[in-house]
Write a structure and sequence with these properties.
By secondary structure, the chain is an alpha+beta fold. It contains 6 helices and 17 strands. The protein is globular, with a radius of gyration of 33 Å.
Length: 337
Amino acid sequence: MRNALRRPRRLTAGLVAAAALTSLVAAPPVLPARAETPPPEDPNLTQTLAPGQPVREGQHVLQAGHVDLGPKYDGGHWRLLVHDDAARADAGATSVWRHPEETVLRVLDRARLTVPDDPAYEFLGTEPGSSVWVVPQTQNTTVVWLGWNTQDPEVMKTIDRGVTLSLDGVQGPGTVTVYLQSGSFGEPQVLWDSRRAEVQPIWVDVNTHTHANWVFTAPGVYLLRLTATADLIDGGTAGDTQLIRFAVGSDTPAADALTAVWTGPGAQVSGPAATAAAEPPPPSAQDPAVPVLIGVIVLVALGLVAGVVVAAIHGTRIRRRALTARSGPTGDSGNPA
């Protein structure tokens, strides 16, 4: 698997023509068939990340432009973060890293395509002619362009060879498929498929920048749980798990993706949302029936205590009467009268 995934730096999408048509025609375009000749190398995949790029706090929605997922040291801690490469589109902007729990990747309807009647796309699991929402492998400036990188300078100094990036699970109204397609190899190379229950790891070499096709079969909110792990040069290990939040379709509010809660199985997701979910609710948020139940238990307990006391007193009176009867008036014989 590792050797197969070392090629993505030279891969470009078979979706270029279809993505470009989205802004020219009203009807959803058709995903193109496999490229017959190798496309030229995508110059947009050549990049170097400057050291010291800040981690920006606060909620943010990304619906166009270049975005990567990748490991970074945040305050000395290994984190899987979102790299918002704003400076690529605007020289006056600053490229920053963002926390996944505060970031929504919005896939608008202009990213909607139609599945072709081509056996090469049967792996999508959808009928020909149906609509899908596609984040393309080759950049279309009108939609978000999502990939991943292992190019943070501090990360490159500390990790040994590369990073394992795993899809742990998907939560959403449809299926999600992530794949690479190259004209030199033809067949789509599926990396992740939400219909598979097991963890799906891929290997990413150090200093790698890759983009792929992300296909969503229905509009709505999707949570993708990803884990980035690595062996370190000093002999240690590093890892982090995060929820990547998508709002697919123009009618899907980004706010819904921000507030969505992971309900699937697996390890806890790091970040403030996971910490809050793991903590018990404050007393004011507890079920109002709890105080009533406690009151009933107290009343029952008091009733039992009172019953024991009354029984004890009644028993004492009976014993006293019995003693009095035995020590009462007697005949000459000394027997009770």
